[in-house]
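Hey, can you fold this one?
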Amino acid sequence: FALPLCLIFPPKPDELLRNIQVPNRITILMTVPSLLEQVARDLCSEKNSHIGLKPLIDLRFVFYGGASCPDDICRTLVDHGVTLLGLYGATGESLPSLGQQSNDLFL
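Sure. Predicted structure:
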């Protein structure tokens, strides 16, 4: 099932983090790279040092689409065990297109 992970638009990273950590069995996150970057930086900040990237690591997949994701963010996420996948043609009508894995990154 799909949930609206944020009630406001544009979503705020702290609201998204709160909502993916509730016990509602969310297993996949699909977002735009700019929000993913904000979430990753927020999780890596000193205020969240006690949880780190665990909320993203616990997800089966983290998809991003709509633009490219900065290499440093992708590398950080993948190096810490996040299953990160880029989507091409990621509109409301498309199906996720999984790329081929190369050097621990999905391209």
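Residues 33-43 form the longest helix (11 residues). Let me know if you want another pass with a different chain boundary.
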